[in-house]
Amino acid sequence: MNSDRNDEQLEQVRGEIRAAAATLRDRPRLAPSAPAPAAGADGIEAARRSYRIAELTDPPYHAFVEHAFRALLKRAPTPVEASAQLDLLGRGASKAEVLGNLRWSAEGRRVGVGVTGLLPRYLLAKLGRVPLLGYLVEGAVAFAALPLLARQLRAADAAISAGDSALGAGQKALAARADVLNQRIDDLRGLAHELGLARDELIRTLNMIDEGLRARASATEVALDDLARRQHDLEGVRRDELEFVRRRVYVMDRWFEALRGALDEVELAAGRRDARVREFEARTRDAITAADGGASAARLDRWLDALQPACAAGARVVTIGDDDWNERLAARGAIATSFAGTRAGDGPGLRDALAHVEDSCLGALVAPAFPALLRAIPADEFVDAATRVLQPGGLLLLGFAHEPVLAAALAGDIVPAVQPAVLATTLSVAGYSTRRIDAADGTPALLAWRESH
Amino acid sequence: MDALASLAEASGRLRTQAADDALLRRWQTRATVWAASCDAAGSPVLLDAFHACLSHCDAAARLLVLDPGAEAAVAAAASSRGIDAHVECVGDAADARKAALLAADALVVCGGGAAFVLDALAVGTPVTGVECAATMDAAGDAALLWRAGDPAAELIAATVERLRGDAPLRARLRARGHARISRIAAPSESPA
């Protein structure tokens, strides 16, 4: 409720302001005026409008004039104005007269500052300026003020005496101070003399250092020149050596290029040679195989005939190193099994195969290329295995077919050289009887058996 | 409103800040004194209003510009109207700003930030000027603001003249300003 009333009052004020604003332009235009004089920053109390006279008369001489202008006219005096008022004081005018002149000048009246007690004093001072009457008035005033003047004179005399005493004490203090200062000046002179000596010594030392530095600088320059010459020479040598190395590198580069070409030709020739060797080996192997095809049949027939007693129907025969025997043995009623591997790496497999053959179960064991078999198993181990697996009366046929040996040699294998006579001796030692059977093409074989007891 | 609250706190500090006595004596004259805050766009309105005051209300009036950012625009506008002798820039010092606000008959706002409005409310100086969001937000119902569409120059000049001569109105606005500052600065209360 109170707020509403306030708002209503404010709205009413707004309305009144609107009305005033509407008529603002209709008012007479004011004459341009300077803004209100500045105060405060320069010591003028612009807002102050009254003073006591003692406030204005207390400051002495210059300060009195300055303060009077700032208080009564609210501005500082110009140099001319200050000089005129000081001149007035110098001609015996009272401070009240100076203050009155300022206060009741045209400017002072416009400013209108009040000074309590100034008016009667000012009027009295002005009355003293009137001829004859002024003299009488001033005389009367002076006569009336004689006791006061006498008292002020005595006070002034006492003040002067006190001032003299203070001045004397001050002079004594100043003299003592001057003595101290003179002593300090003497000390300073001595110090200055010592400083001068030290300065001369320092200058001499600096000169010596300067000379030493100059000499070192000269030596350094000579050394630098020598160093520059050496560097120049070394650079020349380095350039020559670099050129030499560069040429050598070029020569080596060309040499390496030629070497690379020669190596390429060598590799090409080696490749051609290897190809020719491979071709020769292939042709040779083909020729051997072709030759063996005819010889093998006759050979096998001769050796099969020798084995016939052990190849009755149902007899078991194992052949090592040649598959062709199986069919032929089967045709004669035997149960044929073969093991083809006779190379060095076939040893474990061969031993394993023989180990799985039961004891005394084979009618015959055949190795058509016994020397090749020796790459896989030693002769004595093979003979022992054969002794175990052959049934009583069983036959062991060990051939010396040379064609596979030659083929193996061409393939890079080394076939041990074993003579039939030596093998016969070995078998004999193992308890075998042997008989040599030569095939139609002359290939030898040994037929071995153990005598039954 | 948090920003306003922090500004209000700053205004509270200004309220306890000592004013520059020399400047205060310098500006406290019998003539009308305007403190003013404006931006570049508001400076023509402000100078038109002040010119109207010089022409029809008080030929010795003085304009104290608080906003340092508006000094150039105000100086140019015053120079073009031939009234630059009556215009003075206060500067950045808080004690000078407080002296200007204390010496002024009113703070006249024609754009610019809310900080000077809150400062004026804090020291009890009436606020008038042209409505804008920041000024209305800061002053609330504690200021006599006029819409931009109104003949703002004459209205502002008449408002300052009214504020200068109407002590009860000044007291009412001062009370509203103090209430406004207290409301904004109180963290638990939601400002009106």
Summarize the structure in words:
The complex is a heterodimer of chains A (453) and B (192). Chain A is α/β, with parallel strands linked by helices and 453 residues long. Chain A is built from 15 helices and 8 strands. Chain A has helices at residues 2-22, 53-57, 61-72, 79-90, 95-103, 106-111, 118-127, 133-144, 146-307, 324-331, 347-355, 370-373, 379-389, 403-410, 420-429; strands at residues 50-52, 114-116, 316-320, 335-339, 362-367, 390-399, 432-438, 444-450. Chain A has a 6-stranded mixed β-sheet with strand order 4-3-5-6-8-7, with helices on both faces. A two-stranded parallel sheet of chain A has the order 1-2. In chain A, helix 5 (95-103) packs across helix 7. The longest helix of chain A is centred in the middle third of the chain and has 162 residues, at 146-307. Chain A is elongated, with a radius of gyration of 77 Å. The mean pLDDT of chain A is 84. Chain B is an alpha/beta fold and 192 residues long. Chain B has 9 helices and 6 strands; from the N terminus they run H-H-E-H-E-H-E-H-E-H-E-H-E-H-H. In chain B, strands 3-2-1-4-5-6 form a 6-stranded parallel β-sheet, sandwiched between helices. The longest helix of chain B has 19 residues, at 167-185. The mean pLDDT of chain B is 83. Classes of the chains: A alpha/beta (453), B alpha/beta (192). The A-B interface holds A 6-7, 9-10, 13-14, 16-18, 20-22, 24-25, 27-41, 45-47 and B 21-26, 28-31, 52, 54-62, 85-86, 141, 144, 151, 154-155, 157-159, 161-162, 166, 169, 172, 176.
